[in-house]
Protein 1
Amino acid sequence: MIPFSGWEMPVEYSGITKEHVAVRTAAGLFDVSHMGEFDIRGPEALDLIRHVTTNDAANLVDGQAQYSAMAYPHGTVVDDLLVYRHHAEHFMLVVNAANIEKDFEWINSHNRVDATVENVSADIALVALQGPKTIDILQPLTKVQLRDLAHYHFARGSVLNADAIVSRTGYTGEDGFELYLSANESELVWNGIFEAGASFGLVPAGLGARNTLRLEAKYLLYGNDMDGTTTLLEAGLGWIVKFEKPDFIGRDALLKQKQEGVKRRLVGFEMLGKDIARDNYPVFVHGREVGHVTSGAPSITLKKNIGLAYLPAEHASIGTTFHVAVRSKLAEARVVRTPFYKREDHQ
């Protein structure tokens, strides 16, 4: 257990490798109740969300979720988040635990419309059931038709008689569901899912496996791979910046950067030797230090040592080699295509 943003969080239960493999081959259950949830309601709730986020929530239909972000006026990242549309006057935002207070103040400070923002994080538990056996485990516990639920869509229903939002989303690169429910009912649901999943190989999974799984899938982690010093375009998140919608915070700076071209890019790489590139190890191009590893670890699935780092744009193309300082030596690395792991390639 480690302290994290005011929570005691499990790093591992039975071992990171065991938990990682279980999620890739059977199923793992994560307690991610530390994540933050905001309810945004009112006649102009959509207008507020369109103004403070970079993706366009106007494209959502009822029961659909969207990956998005909030940007500062100069285009760097306030936070990345999920937007859930219940209906035209009710949305939910899911934000990173370390950013709950900052995000809540940021949204309220830019609220000039008829909409209310309520921080409901303390009332909501969030458990994520991930892996190829997920539907087999969860379907007997709910009347929500899981196979009919498209990726990044959600439904309201009961799970083990507890009211829940059942969302076909996740942070592992596998199929799976995230369940938002009352904190008071979380223990009952957690235990019930384990009873149902025992014969399918379900294991509890901690932050360690969550990190190795998301890195293989190239899901970015706020505070590591992007933050208030990196822009969404540098981080490779231009696909969630919708310049065609009405003015939003950060638009002008991001548009200018798009037109001028980014000077650095977040790339995926693999080590060419046996050295492991860990978070924050310095990165060198032609002997010059240009940054650091933002996320790095052995890939348990691919049996390679992988990572992410920002490189100058002219040295960021696939196949380019550079060096990572591993302890007292420079170890060679190569830029590769991402995501490192795709579920379809391994089924």
Note: The chain has two domains: 27-201, 219-230+260-346.
Protein 2
Amino acid sequence: MYHMNSIDTSIIISTYNSTEWLEKVLHGYNNQTYKLFEIVIADDGSNRETSDLIIKLQKEVFYSIIHVWHEDNGFQKSQILNKAIIQSCTSYIIMSDGDCIPRADFVQTHIKHREEGWFLSGGYFMLPMNISKLITIGDINEANCFDLKWLKANGLKSTFKNNKLSASGFKAWFLNKITPTNASWNGHNASGWKNDIIGINGFDERMQYGGQDRELGERLFNYGVKSKQIRYSSICIHLDHPRGYKTKESIDRNLAIRANTKKQSKAWTDYGIINTEANELI
């Protein structure tokens, strides 16, 4: 395990009762070319199975894992992410999800492109359920799950999006330049400076499923932080899963909060990290 003083990056990974996927993801981080990081698990109230998995993996991986957990109170991802931000130990934060396996150069790419005054916007490559299930720890260690030939042999269809896995060098740079997708803060693959995230008071805890990551990015813009597009350079594969927590009510409420953030050019939320700390002191 690397000495705490030598690490310079915290990777915050959100999870909820999904140990099969989380185990694959954490093995993905064990194969990273850049190793000076810690993992902070933002656990939105999982049962004992998740903590047992983390205890087991802490003996198998080279990096340290901080497990941040709170009681299950429905979908409270914004709240647990704020708690994880507080407990992270470094000045730079990469955020991803417990269903996104990082390619070996994932962290290295974020480190290469990070710059004061900017945040980085990555993407993901979505896999169907049958291939998600098929991937073994061996396939992750041997990088099969990032190999288009292997994926196509197991049923992946040919689409333009496959360029996310095959592009490198100039082609990846060019596709990052021309993509019509905004360089937004994406919860599955984004990074920025902890001071900037603290400076806008983290995530708005009123927001449940649907766009709370984008809203954080919109406030970072209002705070004066710019963004870089790295969706074709920083690769993670997204394992399939149902989204039972997606409701029209939460989507509509979040859209109203985002509209207000835009209208008022808000950088700060009154419902963020400081609010979290106050609640914990009561």
Note: The mean pLDDT is 92.
Protein 3
Amino acid sequence: MADRRLGVAIHGVGSVAYAHAASWRKNPHVEIVSVSSRSRASAQRLADKLELNCTVRDRFEDVLKDDRVDIVNISGPNHVHAEHGIASAEAGKHFMIEKPMVISMAENRALKDAVERAKVKTVVSFVLRWNPLFDNLKSLLASRVIGDLFYVEVDYWHGIGPWYTGWEWAHTYKTGGSAMLLAGCHAMDAIRWFVRDEVAEVSAFSNNIKGLYEYPANVVAILKFKNGVIGKTSTLLDSDMPYAFNIDLAGTEGTMRDNRLWSKKLFPGQTGWAAIPTIMPDSGAVEHHPFDAQMNHLVDCIRNNVESHCNVADAYHTHEVCMAIDQSIAAGGQTVRLPLA
């Protein structure tokens, strides 16, 4: 495997696929051999814009039959992610899959099982795991500069409306899923990434102020982890403000708020917040996301035959919590315990 370049097939050509393709092109161990979409014309536009010398298709089954394809970049609408992921696994293809990877628990279980049977390498596009601020926060948590973590809060606030290129499918139950699955899953995955334990129970409430979505656009959930850590996450798709991804981590000996640190253990004479100069997760633009690092990570996992920390098996739990939150909302805020039956 280490002696040849891996063939990448990009399937699904929304705006994020252009960022994916740009990142794949930078890795010396891969080459893009195929671009495909429901619309052959949209696939051709991506290939032409990035000057790719590859096959252009409109049939996913033809992608999976191509022996040159080692990795499938799954970036179509939400409701086809699971179908394409399962088919890729059954064809023996490694894959990178956009979030949410599923929009139902049946799909969640089926995708996880398919990957386990096929033993292919996967990465789910919770791309903020490679954000530099996240690297700093993870390092500080590991160094215990704020002691034992007991409270975590991460919020995704982004007013997403009909201007969004994927609006046609994003705002419905059938093809978008929910506010948590469409967008809030980034915040939920960040919480799991920081706590490194699984959620035991959730309670959630919602509203729908602007009436743009079939499902509730604004969600707040209270979380309790198995290890006793408590937390909160919220997703505001009706928010009228610049994009915000809020992070609060409270420990027994200090606190971190976004890129600000309070730790008298580390700074005994501290009198104010210490700011960490880093790249913040403060934009929803795909060009701002660290896709280079994400794609390089998957390639390294394949070449070295190791599992990713952000594979389908791990992302199963993030999606399960999101769907537990949706169940609590449907039940009027009742507590929902995990794992889901």
Note: The chain has eleven helices and 15 strands.
